[in-house]
Amino acid sequence: MALPARKTRHRRTHGALDIDRAGTWTTRLTPDQIRLSEAALGERLTSYGYELA
To answer: pLDDT tens digits, residue range 10-24?
Structure first.
């Protein structure tokens, strides 16, 4: 196990993949955080179909 069970914030890492939250970062992050994410991950985001602003 990579993470101890006591690390509850990592609970989602112990189960099967779940796509329910895919893309929610666009509503959970501030505009500045989104710009930073797009700058750092732009190529990867576009390779998965995300259109940069």
So the answer is: 777 777 877 888 888
pTM above 0.85, yes or no: no
Tally Cβ neighbours within 10 Å of residue 35.
13
Place of tokens 């006591």: 6
**Count of C-beta atoms within a 10 Å radius of residue 26:** 10
Backbone torsion region of residue 49, taken as left when φ is above 0, otherwise alpha when ψ lies between -120 and 50, otherwise beta: left
> In three state form, how does the secondary structure of 23-42 look?
CCHHHHCCHHHHHHHHHHHH
